[in-house]
Amino acid sequence: MQDGIQQATGAPEANDNNIDMAVTFFEGLAAKAAAYLPSVVGALIVLVVGLWVAGRIKKIVAAAMTRSGRVDATLSGFLSSLVHYGLIALVLITTLGIFGVPTTSFAAVIGAAGLAIGLALQGTLGHVASGVMMLGFRPFDVGDYVEAAGVAGTVKSIGLFTTELATPDNKKIIVPNGKIFDDVITNYAGYATRRLDLVFGISYADDIDKAIALIRSEVEKDSRVNADPETVIEVDSLGDSSVNIICRPWVDRADYFGVKWALTKAVKQRFDAEGVSIPFPCRSVYMEKAA
């Protein structure tokens, strides 16, 4: 009977002890939370404000480059994103520093990881660097006909990694930017005008001055030929079978092929009408009798 009474009286004491332990635990937890609360609030403020500022700076940088009119849209987006992610990394490192994380070692780890990634992707990053240089210096624009890296075609797009070309027969060619930027670039659309180099051969029996006058007459008929610089029409060389007359008119680059084809046809037809011959290649063969 007494044991039952003792057990009954001991139960409330055990419950009181458990309650006291729980209260002590939560009081300690609250004290620790109160100690860390300023750091947590400060870190959250830095994180939220920092991310907002990074986004605003990205928009400001992109808008400034767009207003300048000298930066390509692709390059503008790439550089503004690069600034944005750099600022985000800075905000995250600052936030971790407020929590007491050693940011020096953290920055060293990021640097080492960046170095390893850079070595692994050095070829790809080289193409990106070349793309940035091409978009900045603009050796050619979309729509230009260029020759580079052993291929030629009309530029369809310029990206950070590759450049897309279309051949005259409409084949699609994708060329890495590194190969283009490291090679000689010939831009056939780089200037407003181009010079045609046409050669017309006449026989040695024909009148040279007459042939030159006929060629000049056909050149003057074509309104697409520029008056300045003046067209050069002169005897260029004495070939095996013909006297070669060179004709060098200047035209707008958009008229290059049209004028070339038209003048070639017109001069041929004029020579035929005026009796000026365009000789075929010929060889003189001498036969010697055996003794």
Describe this structure in words.
With 291 residues, this protein is an alpha+beta fold. The chain has 3 domains: 109 residues, Orthogonal Bundle (Helix Hairpins), CATH 1.10.287; 48 residues, Roll (SH3 type barrels), CATH 2.30.30; 82 residues, 2-Layer Sandwich (Alpha-Beta Plaits). Helix content is 57%, strand content 16%. The strands form 3 sheets. A 5-stranded antiparallel sheet has the order 4-3-2-1-5. Strands 7-9-8 form a 3-stranded antiparallel sheet, with helices on one face. Strands 6-10 form a two-stranded antiparallel ribbon. The longest helix is centred in the first third of the chain and has 67 residues. The mean pLDDT is 80.
List the keywords.
291 residues, alpha+beta, Helix Hairpins, SH3 type barrels, Alpha-Beta Plaits, 3 domains, five-stranded antiparallel sheet, three-stranded antiparallel sheet, 7 helices, 10 strands, 57% helix, 16% strand, rod-shaped
Provide a compact summary of the structure.
The protein has helices spanning 2-68, 73-98, 103-120, 122-137, 177-181, 208-221, 256-274; strands at residues 145-148, 151-158, 162-166, 172-176, 186-187, 193-195, 198-202, 232-238, 243-248, 250-252.
